[in-house]
Write a structure and sequence with these properties.
There is one protein chain. By secondary structure, the chain is mostly helical. The chain has a domain of 118 residues.
């Protein structure tokens, strides 16, 4: 989130020398897609606050990379910066303009779906009545218990009275 604020301030030359260098380096890398970077960073920050997963950093990085590459590629070789050239030129040569745009749109959608999945909260499950002992269905033993479980049955034996040393009760 903080990095997104720094990016936005660098658009207006209010982030000092470091902000200017950051802005210029990202313009070189992703071209006009640099204006989407703060949005991607804000979404990434939201994932840190609201995700239900404990291990999510890889997904956040992958989603941010897909969105950045896709947007940069859509801007193309002229306005997409260095990454836009690397992605767009091979796609244009192999598939043509229309299919290249469809592939890049698909990459953007994939990045968005990853972010959406990371931010999606679990649905509250409907509360089901817990079965009581009278209603409880007989549980089937698992396959492993059926294969490796003991093959004997336990027989109940009535307790015998305890006799002391003298044989008296």
């Amino acid at each position: 989130m903080l990095l997104a604020i720094i990016f936005v301030l660098s658009f207006f030359e209010k982030a000092g020398i470091a902000g200017k260098a950051l802005f210029q380096s990202f313009v070189f890398l992703v071209g006009k897609a640099v204006f989407a970077i703060p949005l991607i960073l804000v979404i990434s920050g939201l994932v840190f606050f609201f995700t239900r997963y404990q291990k999510f950093l890889g997904g956040v990085i992958l989603a941010a990379l897909f969105l950045t590459l896709g947007i940069s590629g859509i801007f193309g070789a002229e306005n997409g910066g260095w990454l836009g050239k690397i992605i767009t030129l091979p796609l244009l040569k192999l598939f043509g303009a229309w299919v290249a745009q469809i592939i890049l749109g698909g990459i953007i959608i994939i990045g968005g779906v990853i972010f959406w999945h990371l931010l999606k909260q679990p649905r509250p499950e409907a509360k089901e009545e817990k079965p009581t002992l009278a209603k409880a269905p007989a549980a089937k033993p698992s396959l492993i218990k059926r294969i490796f479980g003991p093959r004997f049955k336990v027989k109940e034996v009535e307790p015998t009275p305890f006799f002391g040393r003298e044989g008296k009760q």
